[in-house]
Design a protein that fits this description.
Four Helix Bundle (Hemerythrin (Met), subunit A), single chain, mainly alpha
Length: 190
């Protein structure tokens, strides 16, 4: 357990704090939850930097880091669906991809193969974080205060959804294509 892995574990420990704030009755609980979410998401860059700068990249870290990201995003999406701020089908696409890739990573680890996240996976994660943060803020109130037309909010929302869903699906397919020659399907001999 190195410093980078400890930062990743700290990110995982922020998830219950985030969830507690989302469902609390305190004023601006959702805004505070978004703040905790942003802090937790920012530690993703920090643990990667620490691991590379100290030359302490580990198989455990390569597994825990994306797992922490997936748990954080899953908790946020489930909360946002419950609050009617994210369509359920968007959450299902994202969570389905994350489960499929996680299973692939576990199969790879069982075979002694680590499949690190690729550049497109990082872009996918960033787009999901931006979308989630956008959904946590009271955009209707901000729109009314700013005097922006309703169609602008709809355009931003659907643009974010299109980007997130596209990157989620494309990165998932690429992940499986890249793993095809590296791991073998359980139960096969080749």
């Amino acid at each position: 357990m190195n410093a980078a892995n400890l930062i990743t574990v700290a990110r995982m420990l922020l998830i219950p704090v985030f969830v507690a704030l989302v469902f609390s009755e305190i004023p601006f609980g959702d805004i505070m939850a978004a703040g905790v979410f942003i802090i937790a998401a920012a530690t993703d860059k920090l643990d990667g930097y620490v691991a590379r700068s100290r030359n302490s990249v580990s198989t455990l870290g390569e597994f825990l880091d994306p797992l922490a990201d997936k748990l954080l995003v899953a908790a946020a999406l489930i909360a946002l669906v419950g609050m009617d701020r994210v369509p359920a089908w968007v959450a299902m696409v994202i969570l389905g991809r994350e489960i499929a890739v996680s299973v692939l990573r576990i199969v790879g680890l069982a075979q002694g193969v680590s499949i690190p996240a690729a550049g497109l996976g990082k872009a996918k994660t960033l787009s999901q974080i931006v979308y989630i943060v956008y959904c946590f803020f009271p955009t209707a109130e901000i729109r009314d205060w700013w005097g922006a037309p309703i169609w602008l909010h709809e355009l931003i929302t659907w643009t974010l959804i299109a980007v997130v869903v596209t990157l989620t699906l494309v990165s998932g397919v690429r992940y499986f294509i890249n793993a095809r020659g590296v791991i073998r399907i359980p139960g096969t001999t080749g």
